[in-house]
């Protein structure tokens, strides 16, 4: 009889323990990026940034509204395709996520933003830079990097003032991001008295640029700007060299990756490429960033490409708003997220303006030497 009582008490203890564990809230946070296709290395970089934040938050044991929370990352692949992007967005909405970090590309982030807005779910993009993204009037849309007005304009100014570009050619991939940043670059060039000698376009899956580069070569450019991603920029740089075009090559954050030297098959000369990342750290902030990169390398056995730190910060900012609101309900924490002011992240101070854009967003100019990316300057 005594033995039976002990068994029953033990069973009761296990049941009680299970009940306590079941009271932990499971909160789903979505991430979307192109983890297949030509820029899968960038999509995986972003996804790993989200995974790193989620793992750290779970290890810390976050309390929201008096309950311990276990975060679950729902990662979706949009392949950089707008239709797949909206399908991924709807899937996350149907899965009842509390918020979404993503998408990577402007071309997927913009159409997906309507899906999230209609569902009332906050979306923070770590890398979509097309100005339209935050100018649609949606209260659910945020980003933690500067937009293409700043990025393209700064590169246009740099082309004229620093690179002394007299004959400038522009190519874009006709995506929301590529065409958008190329347009802003052109405006920046013209604002500084420069001229665009040639404007050509390709697409984001092209591999042969002989026709457009031959046309550009006839104009004898000293600067060629490409609006698009590194998977296309690499082969383009290689073919420019083969055709004897010795112009400086410029681009936005889409080309500004650690993979670009490999994608160009070693065709890049030292200092030949100038690109910009929509973000940047200065002073003491560099210590935090270097620690993040070291921790990232240790965890995933790979280097940060571009935006993993911004995904990490976007995830942390979203959760910080939930904690402050005492709720994971988007209706309750969204107003708190919108008022984010002075959050200290790995990438710097994060505050949102009335559109959901980051205030005083930084921009970092880079070049490549010896196959490695080197910082030129941080511009605000």
Automatic annotation (TrEMBL):
SUPFAM superfamilies, sorted: Periplasmic binding protein-like I
Keywords: Amino-acid transport, Signal, Transport
Top-level taxon of origin: Bacteria
Repeat recorded as keyword: no
Residue span, Leucine-binding protein domain: 27-371
Identification of the protein by name: Branched-chain amino acid ABC transporter substrate-binding protein
Gene3D superfamilies xrefs: 3.40.50.2300
Originating species: Ideonella paludis
Family: Belongs to the leucine-binding protein family.
A Pfam family reported for this protein in Swiss-Prot or TrEMBL: Peripla_BP_6
Listed InterPro entries: Leu-bd, Leu_Ile_Val-bd, Peripla_BP_I
Signal peptide extent: 1-22
Taxonomic lineage of the native organism: Bacteria, Pseudomonadati, Pseudomonadota, Betaproteobacteria, Burkholderiales
């Amino acid at each position: 009889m005594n033995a039976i009582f002990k068994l029953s008490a033990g069973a009761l203890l296990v049941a009680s323990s299970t009940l306590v564990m079941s009271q932990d809230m499971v909160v789903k946070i979505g991430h979307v990026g192109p983890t297949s296709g030509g820029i899968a290395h960038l999509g995986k970089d972003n996804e790993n940034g989200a995974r790193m934040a989620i793992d750290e938050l779970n290890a810390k044991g976050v309390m929201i509204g008096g309950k311990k929370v276990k975060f679950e990352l729902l990662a979706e692949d949009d392949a950089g395709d707008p239709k797949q992007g909206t399908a991924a967005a709807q899937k996350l909405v149907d899965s009842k996520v509390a918020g979404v970090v993503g998408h990577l590309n402007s071309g997927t982030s913009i159409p997906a933003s309507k899906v999230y807005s209609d569902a009332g779910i906050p979306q923070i993009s770590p890398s979509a830079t097309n100005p339209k993204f935050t100018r649609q009037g949606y209260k659910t849309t945020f980003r933690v990097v500067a937009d293409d007005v700043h990025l393209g304009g700064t590169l246009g100014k740099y082309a004229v003032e620093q690179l002394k570009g007299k004959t400038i050619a522009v190519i874009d991939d006709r995506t929301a991001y590529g065409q958008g940043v190329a347009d802003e670059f052109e405006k920046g060039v013209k604002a500084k008295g420069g001229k665009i000698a040639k404007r050509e376009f390709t697409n984001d899956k092209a591999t042969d640029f002989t026709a457009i580069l031959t046309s550009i070569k006839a104009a004898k450019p000293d600067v060629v700007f490409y609006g698009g991603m590194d998977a296309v920029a690499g082969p383009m740089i290689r073919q420019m060299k083969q055709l004897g075009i010795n112009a400086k090559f410029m681009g936005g954050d889409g080309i500004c990756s650690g993979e670009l030297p490999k994608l160009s098959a070693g065709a890049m000369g030292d200092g030949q490429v100038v690109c910009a990342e929509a973000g940047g750290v200065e002073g003491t902030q560099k210590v935090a960033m270097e620690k993040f990169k070291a921790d990232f390398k240790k965890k995933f056995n790979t280097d940060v490409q571009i935006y993993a730190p911004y995904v990490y910060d976007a995830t942390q900012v979203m959760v910080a708003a939930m904690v402050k609101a005492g709720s994971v309900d988007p209706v309750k924490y969204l107003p708190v997220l919108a008022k984010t002011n002075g959050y200290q992240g790995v990438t710097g101070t994060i505050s949102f303006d009335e559109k959901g854009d980051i205030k005083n967003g930084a921009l970092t100019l880079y070049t490549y030497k010896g196959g490695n990316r080197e910082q030129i300057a941080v511009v605000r």
